[in-house]
Design brief:
heterodimer, A: alpha+beta, Ubiquitin-like (UB roll), Alpha-Beta Plaits, 2 domains, five-stranded mixed beta sheet, 5 helices, B: about 500 residues, four-stranded mixed beta sheet, 15 helices, 17 strands
Chain lengths: ~240, ~500
């Protein structure tokens, strides 16, 4: 008989070594997340997947599933917390959806819609951040970076390179690239690299492709992120 | 004319009357009058008090964002900004207008006809019809679209539905009624499906009928009030706009044509990429809106009007039959080569709305709008100019980019800006002719707004004097004593004024 945990009162099976996120996804339960990606080592930094396990607050993407866990996921308290976290992500950077080419395909925007985020609530930082358009095919718009490190992990774990890293602490945290000049053009990033395509927001973009997908054909035009996520993110143990 | 009323010679002891805001226009502006003891107008100005700064903050962005970024200038004519920017960035990817795929060219034209139709309907029915149907000095409680719907339900409803139809054209092509996407560098991101085309075809004949009805309505209103309509706020000016090479009315792409008040050609089929050699802009200290003028005629005589009146005056013919018949009738009513009546803007606006409805039908029946060859590509360039006839007149977008595709320089000459001088002159004329010496009442002041409204100004689009407006900064202590004063001149120089 397989081992089980409960999520919001529903009993679901898990396999040894799975995280709560992986067990939930396999059972068709969506837990909001931004820095988690089934193909890469969990990072646990965005905190959007915060759940309560036997009364204790944990990140579902990093916490192992264990027999007897009683997990709370879709509760008002957690939804409110997640909405606040998302609002903080919005005000910390400069996320201006109306002019952003990622709009409709953006996971940050989609999560905000899913969480019914109707305003920013917190005062904007209006952080002064730069654009690095030096690379012929790929551009970084630091205004939109949420420090999820997906580009860092994709570059290391999939592309076998080491193009990106996060530097600085706290409020001074920022994305850097592996070049003496600090410019993307002086790294070994190539347009076909996974790291160039994995950004959940509009921080890393393929140049000259913006707005080519019409409204109505974008990822989140007809489906919310929970559906898209459950359809596309398969847990590792299935592979 | 009435230039002497721009600045009163001696402002001491003058009484100030302010109309703020000017209502039933797009954006925010105000009119100030300075009156002497006998209520004689000594100064009359239209001030644009909004500050936008688009030209500055789109610098540093990648060029492919431009059509989507700049359309946020406006919620009424976003498509015009979208397409002007698209025409400019076509050039950045090496695609000249003649090399745009036929499907993309026709989809853009269809999109633009939808835009002009909805904008013209909005202005005529929602914003101006209360003045035109109830009278300029009618009860303020009646001067709104709700009252029009109450007393003239058929007319009001046609206006709402004409606008809706134009917006549906926009939605089918760009995904949203307002601020969609559609045009990309070198083409379009989608064509119409057969279902979308058929949906739009369903109502188009009704729209043509209603548009023709609105031409008849404004003709009746205008002609039953001659010569008042021919005199009110009327100016003998130059006119500028795009026309097709054969002189036909053109809204999407053509050469610049300018005629003087007698109808004589000042220039024709000028390549708009060279606009800078022909048009300059002047900044004045009391408004955020610039004053463009034709370089060849100089600042004093070179100002001109744009928009429906200019276009219908300038063109030799219109290539759709009903609108052409309406144009001929319009021109015939004055007996002059050029019609100068400011209120004739309304008439010509409806002639154009009819032209749009007819043209939409023509394009919907063209199989190219369902084609799949949508994007062309050429050699990269570093500078692009896009010019289009927006509902309110000729709209110029000019961009420069660097080797990394980042925008380094922007210049926008927005339609309403070109009418700035004329609107001020019309305000001064109405103030001098209709208000001066009378006890000012609210209905009387509405005459000033009627004059401005005729131009259908979009004041929020038109505030672009960023960085060039002379500014004065005063630091005053708690007792009200001036302790420091800095003056920024229009050339950008800053100096301390006085001994501080």
């Amino acid at each position: 008989m397989s081992k089980t945990i409960t999520i919001d009162g529903r009993t679901i099976p898990f396999e040894e070594g799975q995280t709560i996120m992986e067990a939930a996804t396999a059972a068709g339960i969506y837990i909001p997340h931004l820095c988690h990606h089934p193909e890469y080592t969990p990072h646990g930094s965005c905190k959007l997947c915060t759940v309560k396990v036997n009364g204790r607050v944990c990140s579902a993407c990093t916490f192992p599933a264990m027999e007897g866990q009683d997990v709370l996921n879709d509760t008002k308290e957690l939804r409110d917390d997640r909405r606040k976290i998302t609002q903080m992500l919005f005000v910390e950077g400069n996320h201006l959806c109306p002019g952003c080419e990622k709009s409709g395909n953006c996971r940050l925007q989609a999560v905000a819609y899913y969480l019914n985020m109707l305003d920013n609530h917190f005062p904007h930082f209006y952080a002064k951040r730069e654009i690095d358009a030096s690379h012929p095919d790929v551009m970084i718009d630091h205004n939109r970076c949420i420090f999820c490190t997906l580009c860092v992990r994709a570059s290391q774990q999939k592309d076998g390179k080491d193009v990106f890293a996060i530097s600085g602490r706290g409020i001074n945290k920022h994305l850097i690239v592996n070049a003496q000049s600090g410019l993307l053009k002086d790294t070994n990033l190539e347009v076909a690299d996974e790291a160039a395509h994995i950004c959940p927001t509009g921080a890393i973009l393929i140049k000259r492709t913006g707005f080519q997908v019409p409204i109505g054909q974008r990822i989140y035009d007809h489906q919310e992120i929970d559906q898209v996520s459950l359809e596309t993110e398969h847990p590792r143990h299935d592979e | 004319m009435y230039e002497h009323l721009e600045t009163a010679e001696n402002r001491d002891n003058l009484k100030r009357v302010v109309v703020d805001p000017v209502s039933r226009v797009e954006g925010h502006g105000k009119v100030t009058l300075l009156l002497d003891a006998d209520n004689k107008v000594q100064q009359a100005r239209l001030h644009i008090v909004e500050f936008r700064g688009f030209e500055r903050f789109i610098q540093g962005r990648p060029y492919w964002e431009l059509p989507v970024l700049v359309q946020r200038l406006c919620g009424i004519c976003p498509v015009s900004h979208h397409l002007a920017a698209a025409k400019a960035i076509d050039q950045l990817v090496g695609v000249d207008p003649e090399n745009l795929p036929a499907s993309a060219d026709k989809l853009r034209r269809l999109l633009h006809f939808g835009q002009v139709l909805q904008s013209h309907a909005l202005h005529f029915f929602h914003l101006s019809s209360p003045d035109l149907l109830f009278g300029f000095e009618s009860d303020i409680a009646k001067r709104n679209i709700i009252a029009v719907l109450g007393e003239y339900p058929d007319i009001g409803l046609q206006g709402v539905k004409l606008r809706k139809y134009g917006q549906e054209v926009i939605r089918m092509i760009s995904g949203k009624r307002i601020h969609g996407t559609g045009a990309v560098a070198g083409g379009m991101n989608k064509s119409l499906t057969k279902a979308e085309r058929d949906y739009l075809l369903e109502d188009i004949d009704q729209m043509i009928t209603w548009a023709a009805g609105s031409v008849a309505l404004i003709k009746k209103v205008h002609c039953s009030n001659l010569p008042y309509y021919d005199d009110f706020a009327t100016l003998r000016t130059n006119y500028l706009g795009l026309t097709k090479p054969d002189g036909a009315l053109e809204l999407y792409h053509g050469g610049i044509r300018a005629k003087n008040d007698k109808g004589e050609m000042i220039m024709d089929q000028v390549d708009y990429c060279q606009y800078n050699d022909y048009i300059h802009e002047e900044v004045r200290s009391w408004t955020y809106m610039k004053f463009p003028y034709l370089l060849s005629l100089g600042q004093e005589k070179g100002w001109y009007r744009v928009g429906p009146l200019a276009r219908v005056n300038n063109c030799d013919y219109i290539n759709t039959p009903l609108a052409e018949a309406a144009r001929v009738e319009f021109k015939a009513h004055s007996g002059e080569a050029m019609v100068h009546s400011t209120l004739a803007f309304h008439w010509t606006r409806m002639v154009e709305a009819l032209h749009c409805a007819e043209s939409i039908k023509g394009l919907l029946n063209d199989p190219d709008i369902m084609g799949h060859d949508l994007v062309a590509q050429g050699e990269k360039r570093y500078e692009g100019v896009g010019v289009i006839e927006a509902p309110r007149g000729t709209l110029f977008h000019h961009y420069q980019v660097d080797e990394n595709d980042i925008v380094t320089k922007v210049n926008l000459i927005v339609s309403t800006t070109s009418n700035n001088m004329a609107m001020n002159e019309s305000v001064r004329q109405v103030a001098a002719e209709y208000l001066s010496g009378r006890e000012l009442t609210e209905p009387l002041l509405n005459n000033l707004e009627v004059a401005i409204r005729a131009y259908d100004p979009c004041l929020s689009c038109a505030t672009h004097a960023v960085g060039k407006m002379p500014l004065q900064l005063e630091l005053i202590d708690a007792e009200g004593k001036l302790i420091d004063k800095l003056v920024k001149h229009s050339d950008g120089q800053i100096e301390r004024d006085g001994d501080f």
